[in-house]
């Protein structure tokens, strides 16, 4: 497994665990995962950025996935697949440090490792649909982040 894929895998494990076990704190789960899997400091930081980038936007990401991929109702998406989608979507629509094709390919790889037999094709399809609306989605996310920043001020 490539180093950045391992970092994404750690982030996925943390997001999945905190998604299904609400009483597990993400910082604690991340610390445990990083103790179990040795990663270079920059990769551990990358995993941390994913976890703490996705978590506060989870509801917004889910709403956008539901809006732009309505043929896949969120309540019917497996928790592992939902978190793979969140990671990739966050990477290309929020963080913008990962090219869309790379984020999709990495998500498909994670789906092959952790999802069902149909998960890779499903993840690829949903993310392909989201990528078609990348600029529109980016604007929506920027507006939501700006609104939240104003509310916190």
**Alpha carbon gap, first and last residue:** 42 Å
Structural class by helix and strand composition:
mainly alpha
Top-tier CATH class: Mainly Alpha
Gyration radius (Cα, Å) is 15 Å
Fold-level CATH name: N-utilizing Substance Protein B Homolog, Chain A
Give me the number of helical elements. 8
Low-confidence segments: none
Q: Please state the second-level CATH architecture.
A: Orthogonal Bundle
State which percent range the strand residues make up.
under 5%
Average pLDDT, rounded to a whole number, is 90
CATH homologous superfamily classification: NusB-like
**Number of DSSP E strands:** 0
The total domain count is: 1
Order of helices and strands: HHHHHHHH
* Residues in helix, %: over 70%
> What is the approximate shape?
globular
Major sheet summary line = none
Write up what this structure looks like.
By secondary structure, the protein is mainly α. It has one domain (3-152): NusB-like (N-utilizing Substance Protein B Homolog, Chain A, Orthogonal Bundle), CATH 1.10.940.10. The protein has helices at residues 3-20, 26-36, 41-54, 58-68, 79-95, 100-114, 119-132, 134-152. The chain is globular, with a radius of gyration of 15 Å. The model has no long low-confidence stretch (mean pLDDT 90).
Topology of this protein?
Blueprint: H1 3-20, H2 26-36, H3 41-54, H4 58-68, H5 79-95, H6 100-114, H7 119-132, H8 134-152
Summed up:
The chain has 153 residues and is mainly α. 78% of the residues lie in helices and 0% in strands.
Summary keywords:
N-utilizing Substance Protein B Homolog, Chain A; 153 residues; single chain; mainly alpha
